[in-house]
Amino acid sequence: GVTYTELRRPCRTMILVNPHSGRGQALQLFTGHIRAMLTEASVPYTLVITEHQNHARELVRNADLTQWDALVIMSGDGLLFEVINGLMEREDWQQAIQTPLGMLPGGSGNALAASIHHYSQSPPAWNEELLLSCGFMLCKGLVGPLDLVSVHLASSQRLFSFLSLAWGFVADVDIESEKYRHVGAIRFLMGTLVRLASLRVYQGRLAYLPAKEVPKPPNERVKATRPPFTPQQPSLCSSLPCHLVPRASPKQSSLKNCVDTNLNQNSITNSSSVITNIRPGTQGNNKTASPTDSLLPSLDQPVPENWTVVNEEDFVLVLAIYQSHLAEDLWTVPGAMADDGLIHLFYVTAGISRPALLRLFLAMERGSHLACGCPHLVYEKVRALRLEPVSQQGMITVDGEVVEYGPIQAQVHPRMARLICG
Ligand code: ADP
Ligand code: MG
């Protein structure tokens, strides 16, 4: 079963904020909803406001990690992607990637936050309520394992991914909808409707290594070793929505009780500090000792015989996902766990009608798309996969970020990282 450990106390936390993520309100959301909670729970933190893309990646690649007990992202999934890759680029990646990682949803794509919330067996939550739930998990400080997926690109670049690899419809919607970032998570629905109007087929070859042995059902594993929760800050707990607090009084308090709406940076520095210009140091930056991908031949070699080669070569989408949620309101993989050791591979073949595709995405809100009986939708649990696009034009995303377009392959590394959850 899953063994949750507890964060060291006091937990010295670095919180990385992307001020431009989502509607550009991540810092205000932090100050308004999270700051007081952390202060009350005596979590000492340093707020780091990123100044440009890859700032966080450079920072964690060179940071002295002995100073930190947790790295927390207040942004969308894109900033965690930077942090994980920064950690994996270090010479000491094996210890570095063991640093507990936390997620506070402040972006427009908050798939991991929605997934962690879902794994905690709480009823669905969105927006500020999801943020509060994640803030509360950070205060509780339980840490569980997180699978990572190693991704190889044609240029022999290698990336580490915690969420998804997408090609076709899903990748196009994700990137095209970034221009609607100011509307928040609903950008994916808007992007889906726009993309449906110009639905296209993507040609390519897909192959995968099926996961033959499926681990025990997730529920058994969660309940097995979760340590009992003892509220240490009763005043904080009593001000949270009751479903966030195990065995709490059924009376649901107003969310306003635990919200501090004064955006006053000086008061952040009372208990903690704000840093906006950490300079990268000089350690790390050596890739000699990275993990080996034993399941993957090189990209110019054929796939091994025990792989399945998909017959169809005309797709509407290919999506490999390793968390339950693709977005706050897209429950893509009902049975997924952060550490199930699986890549959940979905593909939709050409010939699906626009209404049928829309129905799939609408059903995904309730996680019922697999029950739609759609003959164009295929779902396989795999450990590795390879995708070779033939169409000249298209987009591939990893964790919602655009990567080089071309042949790509990936394999799962069970429990490589650690995640604040539960
Ligand atoms: P969202 O969910 O709103 O897309 P993300 O966390 O995914 O939010 O961030 C979007 C992109 O912004 C990512 O590619 C990330 O690397 C990048 N980024 C991070 N910090 C900054 C910054 N200070 N300025 C501009 N871009 C940034
Ligand atoms: Mg993003």
TrEMBL record:
It comes from Poecilia formosa. GO terms for cellular component: cytoplasm; endomembrane system; membrane. Residues 8-155 form the DAGKc domain. This is sphingosine kinase. One of its GO terms (molecular function) is sphingosine kinase activity. GO terms for biological process: cellular response to growth factor stimulus; negative regulation of apoptotic process; sphingosine biosynthetic process. It is found in: Endomembrane system. It holds the Pfam family YegS_C. Its main location: membrane. Keywords: ATP-binding, Kinase, Membrane, Nucleotide-binding, Transferase. InterPro entries: ATP-NAD_kinase_N, Diacylglycerol_kinase_cat_dom, Lipid_Phosphate_FormReg, NAD/diacylglycerol_kinase_sf, YegS/DAGK_C.
